[in-house]
Amino acid sequence: MGSTGGSEAMKMDLIVPWVQRSAAAHNAGMETSSGAREPILSPVDRVSEMCFGLFMAVTFVGAVSASGAGEEEVRTMFFAALGCNLAWGLVDAVMYLVRTITDRGRSLALALAVRAAPDAATGRSYVEQALSKVASTIATPTEVEAIRARIVAMPQPPARPMLHREDAIGAVAIFLIVVAATFPVVLPFIFIGDVGIAKLTSRLVALAMLFVGGLALGRYSAYGTVRMGLAMTGLGVALIVSIMALGG
Predict the structure, then answer these.
(1) Which residues have CB under 8 Å from 71's CB, separation 6+?
(2) 203: burial class by Cβ within 10 Å (0-12, 13-18, 19+)?
(3) For residue 46, how many other CB atoms are within 10 A of its CB?
(4) Tag placement on the chain: N or C end, fewer CB within 10 Å?
(5) Residue 68: which region, alpha, beta or left (left: phi > 0; alpha: psi -120 to 50)?
(6) What does pTM read for this prediction?
């Protein structure tokens, strides 16, 4: 299943999710300082879902025999790949909502605990426990206290975690990404009569998509766009070789 959502508890929109819903604190998550809205799904989310749908489709394509494959076999492969990605796109979308409301409930529990803490030191300890391992090594006591104070000063949090319009949009986007990743890989079999050439074209398209996805991840992580693109392409080559070795 694709992996969606960041986990850095250092971000205020994860520690106090209702900050995003407050107009007075819009710069904490929903908008940047320049007023531009942040994307609902991060580049990591989008590329991960694309790769998930792509790998599923490549697996089905590998099952088509280059020798003796007829129109019926190609049609069966097309609908099998599409049906599988429709199902798993739906599963991924639902699990995205489950993960979102679970994380939001965890954040809400933290906020309520901090606000109900008998003293500031106890509140700070709750915040420190919620920080990720990376964030806990770089957050200073002053920063931890600033987070605690901000949580205490925020408007009353909701009684229970809730899903919002943006969450539904994110779930739909995940579903569409997984399903859309099917078509570039299987369409060569529809338009190219020679199954061997169609198979080669499909694999080249898959590798190109992985390379572009790697470029996006490299740009996002500042690790190096071309390096990440080549790494993702290498992952695709390894997958295709494995499929071929298994008879695909």
Answers:
(1) none
(2) buried
(3) 21
(4) N
(5) left
(6) 0.75
Question: Is it the case that residue 40 has pLDDT exceeding 50?
Answer: yes
- Tell me the C-alpha distance between 131 and 3, whole Å: 20
Instruction: Please identify which residue in the block is written with the tokens 């989310």.
Output: 45
Neighbours of 209 (CB within 10 A): 22
Instruction: Answer whether 69's CB lies under 8 Å from 195's CB.
Output: yes
As a whole number, the mean pLDDT across the chain is: 79
The amino acid at residue 59 is: T
Angstrom distance (rounded) from CA 98 to CA 43: 20
User: Residue 66 is encoded by which pair of tokens?
Assistant: 């280059």
What are the pLDDT digits (tens) for 135-144? Answer: 777 888 888 8
Q: Which amino acid would we find at residue 164?
A: H
Distance of CA 160 to the CA centre of its chain: 25
Domain ranges of the chain: 12-32+41-245
Three-state helix/strand/coil letters over 137-187? HHCCHHHHHHHHHHHHHCCCCCCCCCCCHHHHHHHHHHHHHHHHCCHHHHH
- At 59, the pLDDT band (50, 70, 90 cuts) reads confident
> Tokens 């798993």 appear where?
88
Q: What is the pLDDT of residues 202-220, one digit of tens each?
A: 889 989 999 999 888 888 8
Q: Which of 16-30, 34-48, 169-183 has the lowest mean pLDDT?
A: 16-30
Q: What is the pLDDT of residue 69?
A: 59
Q: Smallest Cα–Cα separation from 207: which of 169, 179, 243, 167?
A: 243
